[in-house]
# Entry
Amino acid sequence: MNIDCFNRLCFLLENLGGLRPTWHVTIVEQVAMFLTVLSHHTKNRIVKASFFRSGYTVSKHVNFVLNTLLKLHTVLLVTSQPMPENCTDNQWKYFKGCLGALDGIKQKLTHNISCVKPKILNMTFGFIYSINIGY
# Structure
């Protein structure tokens, strides 16, 4: 994560989410501890040694940031829109009726594309696409 993205996340958490700094731990440090735990899957004792904080402080502030992020789920998470049936774009024509099959990532598909319509307990849930692009 670059510094601009990190600062934007801190700004959103502070202004929209209501995350507040404490006497000894700033918002930047709280978010940094949270991202360290989340992205590197580090334990509490590793983070407390890295940030020179007690285990209780690390746990408390990671939970503060997590609760603030959960409050902002409507702002941060985008719901997928299904592809319309009248889509004429060649990139998306194989994925009509699916929710975000490629999510905007353009990849050249040169191998097998197969479509299976599953039935689980005699209920149809939609299409599952199996794509093999030869990794």
About this structure: The CA atoms of residues 27 and 41 lie 20 Å apart. Confidence is low (pLDDT under 50) at residues 106-125. The chain has five helices and four strands. The radius of gyration is 21 Å.
